[in-house]
Specification:
By secondary structure, this protein is α/β, with parallel strands linked by helices. The protein has helices spanning 5-11, 27-46, 68-79, 100-110, 121-131, 145-159, 176-188, 204-217, 227-231, 252-259, 266-271, 292-301, 310-314, 320-339; strands at 57-62, 83-87, 113-117, 135-139, 166-170, 191-195, 221-224, 236-239, 278-281. The strands form two sheets. A five-stranded parallel beta sheet has the order 7-6-5-8-9. A four-stranded parallel beta sheet has the order 2-1-3-4, sandwiched between helices. Strand 6 (191-195), helix 8 (204-217) and strand 7 (221-224) form a beta-alpha-beta unit. Helix 3 packs across helix 14. The longest helix is centred in the N-terminal third of the chain and has 20 residues, at 27-46. Bound molecules: phosphoric acid mono(formamide)ester. Phosphoric acid mono(formamide)ester (CP) binds next to helix 3.
């Protein structure tokens, strides 16, 4: 199996580019990346070698903890024939004794590509400006673009198409994942509904940008605190944690009270009136008491499940672990088209 010439030509646009946020790309470009993700998933499944990054050295910079993103970048690198080097918080001088620009210049002289997971989009923009090699965003406070390619690929592999479909995000909608789903969905022509209390709805600027993209792609944006209106006949429900990385724990009690009506549970699934609706979560999730944090929340607030109930998390509508696996294939696609020898 291999890519046909038309698909290869479409992927050419990514060569040498950074991958910092999805809105740097067109719907067509994102779609080719989503389809290439499927191709690489199939290759991996069939054991077909795909060493597009043979001999390349990759720097993986993580200022924040990670299970999926770190694993996906590492395994993708090995599958593609590259050598990944992991740098955790405090391992290098970045931002403490050395500026992002200087670090970028040094790493760019030694490595062929750089992944960055950190706090500020401006930091990754500075890395990209100064490194002279492709830079990939493994998450910032603002965006989570590698997650988006995995998520929209997961939707497409389940739905068969993105056209005319509706994705509903419920919960705290001011975080990077909710913002990115809104923007990326609107670019791709997916109807995006957001159900969140008024105080936890997406930033005004993001709402406006999403509406502009939706006008171009002729998709629908709905942002409401009425969860039943948002989920009615939706094709997918997506949720995320109620307290994001770095947020102050003291707001948790208020957050729980605000967000309990938005918990993804059996009753919400029934209210979609769509027996085919699927459920996504970017993980990690608080769906049981098998974590330290889950236990602490239970002891303090008596809540054994938060944003999603365990029966739905484990249930037949959940595609959450396919979605997690797809982080590998999508990150592999992103690294291959920007740095690899696929052409
Ligand atoms: N979804 C996600 O980014 O997972 P990690 O924090 O484990 O990388």
């Amino acid at each position: 199996m291999g890519l046909n010439t038309t698909a290869l030509n479409k992927l050419q646009v990514f060569k040498g580019e950074h991958f910092l946020k999805t809105c740097d790309f067109s719907a067509e470009e994102l779609n080719t990346l989503i389809d290439f993700t499927g191709e690489l998933k199939e290759k991996k499944k069939r054991g077909i070698p795909h060493p597009y990054l043979k001999g390349k050295n990759l720097a993986l910079l993580f200022e924040k903890p990670s299970t999926r993103t770190r694993s996906a970048f590492s395994v993708a690198a090995y599958d593609l024939g590259a050598y990944p080097e992991y740098f955790g918080q405090g391992d290098i001088h970045l931002g403490v004794k050395e500026s992002t620009a200087d670090t970028a210049k040094v790493l760019g002289r030694m490595y062929d590509g750089i992944e960055f997971r950190g706090y500020h989009q401006k930091d990754i923009e500075s890395l990209a400006k100064n490194a002279n090699v492709p830079v990939w965003n493994g998450l910032t406070n603002e965006w989570h673009p590698t997650q988006m390619i995995a998520d929209f690929f997961t939707l497409k592999e389940n739905w068969g198409t993105l056209e005319g479909k509706t994705l509903t995000y419920v919960g705290d909608a001011r975080n990077n994942v909710a913002h990115d789903l809104l923007i990326t969905g609107a670019i791709l022509g997916v109807n995006v509904h957001i159900a969140a209390p008024k105080s936890l709805q997406p930033d005004e600027a993001i709402q406006k940008l999403a509406k502009d993209y939706a006008a171009q792609s002729q998709s629908e944006i709905l942002i409401t605190d009425d969860v039943n209106q948002a989920i009615y006949q939706t094709d997918a429900i997506y949720t995320d944690v109620w307290l994001s990385m770095g947020e102050d724990q003291s707001v948790l009690e208020t957050r729980i009270n605000e967000l309990l009506p938005y918990q993804v549970n059996e009753s919400m699934l029934l209210n979609t009136m769509n027996p085919e609706a699927i459920v996504l979560h970017c993980l990690p999730a608080f769906h049981d008491l098998n974590t330290e944090v889950g236990q602490q929340i239970y002891e303090k607030y008596g809540l054994s499940e938060m944003e999603i109930t365990d029966d739905v998390f484990q249930g037949e509508h959940s595609v959450i672990f396919d979605q997690a696996e797809n982080r590998l294939h999508s990150i592999k696609a992103i690294m291959s088209v920007t740095l690899g020898d696929i052409f």
